[in-house]
Amino acid sequence: MFLVCGEALFDFFYQAAEDEQPSRIAYQAVAGGSPFNVAVGLRRLGVDSGFLAGLSTDFLGARLRSVLASEGVSNQWLQDFAAPTTLSMVAVGSDGSPQYSFRGEGCADRLLTPDQLPSLDASVRGLHVGSFSLVVEPIGNTLLSLVRRESQRRLISLDPNVRLNAEPDIDKWRRRVADFAAHAHLIKVSEEDLLLLYPEQALEDIAQGWLTQQCQLVFITHGGQGATVYSRRHGSAWVPAQAITVADTVGAGDTFQAALITWLTEHRADTPAGLAELSRDDLETVLKFAAAAAAITCTRIGPDLPYRQQLA
User: Fold this and answer.
1) The total number of structural domains that make up the chain
2) Which range marks the domain in which residue 157 is found?
3) What would the pLDDT profile of 200-237 be if each residue is shown by its tens digit?
4) Cα of 192 vs its chain's centroid, Å
5) What is the SS3 assignment for the chain?
6) What tens digit of pLDDT does each residue of 265-296 get?
7) β-pair partners for 230
8) Angstrom distance (rounded) from CA 118 to CA 127
9) Rounded to the nearest 5°, which phi and psi values hold at 37?
C-alpha cells in the first residue's frame, strides 16, 4: 500500500465551440490534482493506494470521493470538511502544455491539521507528497510533520510540482522543497520546476545536493527530451522520450511518478534499502517504464492515466 497525500480538486478545461456566444464559456470539469492523479494512477497500474486528504462535503467533494471509490483507492484516510472544493481553471497551449489558475483559498483540501494525522501500520510501505499542498497552510505544515515522523519507517517520495498560481512566493517554495527533500528517499522533479526554483544552478548540481542527504534517487523529466536519473552508486542515466503525437501533457508527470512507484513495488524495491540496491540496468529499465507510461497519457486529453495491461 502506498499512501498519497495532498490536494484533490476539479480541473475546468475550456471547451471551444464554433457557435460560442460572448456571454457563455463552456468547460469540461475533470477530477484531478497532482496527488489525486498519482493515487488513481497507482491503482490503474495495479498498486494498492490510499489517499490522505481533506474533501469537501459539497457536491464536487462527493464526486471526488466517488471517483476514488470507483478507481479502488482506499478512503480510510479521508477527512470531511464543510468547506468548498478547490477549482483549477486550465488553458492548454499549442504545444499541449497546461496553464493553471487556482481558486483554493479556504478550501477543504488545505484544511488538514497535524492533530488529524493518523497512525500508520506496516501495510503502508511508502508515502508520496507533492504539489501546492507543500506550501499552503495548514496542510503544508501537516504533511511536513508527517514525513518527519515517518521517514525512518518507510519510503518517502516527493514531487515538488511547482504551481506559482497557487502560491506565488518562489522563496517559500524553495524553503519548503528543501524541508521536504531532507526527508525524502526518492525525488522526481521536472526540469521546468528546477529552472523556476534554482535558475542559476545546473540540474546535476541540484540532484547531487539532494543525494548528500537521505535521498537515494533523483529523477528529472525533460518533457520531449526524455528523463534522467541520478543515483549515489551509479552516477546518472538518461532515456529519450517516446515519439508520439501529443494531445496535451496534463497528468504526464503524475503518470511518470505513479509508474516509478509501480515498478519499484513490483520489483520489491519500494524501501530505502531497496532503492540503494538497484543496479544501473534497473535504473535504465525503470526510466523506460515510467517514460512509456507518461507517453500514453500525453496522447490523451486531460489526466487520463494508463492501466497496467497497456504497459506490457
Assistant:
1) 1
2) 2-17+26-112+120-311
3) 999 999 999 999 999 999 999 999 999 999 999 999 99
4) 15
5) CEEEECCCEEEEEECCCCCCCCCCCCEEEEEECHHHHHHHHHHHCCCCEEEEEEEECCHHHHHHHHHHHHHCCECCCEEEECCCCEEEEEEECCCCCEEEEEECCCCHHHCCCHHHCCCCCCCCCEEEEEHHHHCCCCHHHHHHHHHHHHCCCCEEEEECCCCCCCCCCHHHHHHHHHHHHCCCCEEEEEHHHHHHHCCCCCHHHHHHHHHCCCCCEEEEECHHHCEEEEECCCEEEEECCCCCCCCCCCCHHHHHHHHHHHHHHHCCCCCHHHHHCCCHHHHHHHHHHHHHHHHHHHCCCCCCCCCHHHHC
6) 999 999 999 999 999 999 999 999 999 999 99
7) 218, 236
8) 13
9) -60, -40
| Alpha carbon distance 68, 52 (integer Å) | 11
pLDDT tens-digit series, residues 74-92: 999 999 999 999 998 877 7
CA distance 277 to 19: 59
Put residue 199 in one of left, alpha, beta given phi > 0 → left and psi -120 to 50 → alpha: alpha
Grid cell at residue 2: 502506498
249, burial (CB in 10 Å: exposed 0-12, middle 13-18, buried 19+): buried
d(CA 245, CA 230): 28
State the Cα–Cα distance between residues 189 and 253, nearest whole angstrom: 8
Of the candidates 106, 213, 204, 157, the one whose C-alpha atom is nearest the C-alpha of residue 2 is: 157
Residue listed under C-alpha cell 541540484: 206
Rounded to whole angstroms, what are the CA distances from 192 to 136, 223, 296? 21, 9, 20
Q: What CATH number does the domain containing 223 carry?
A: 3.40.1190.20
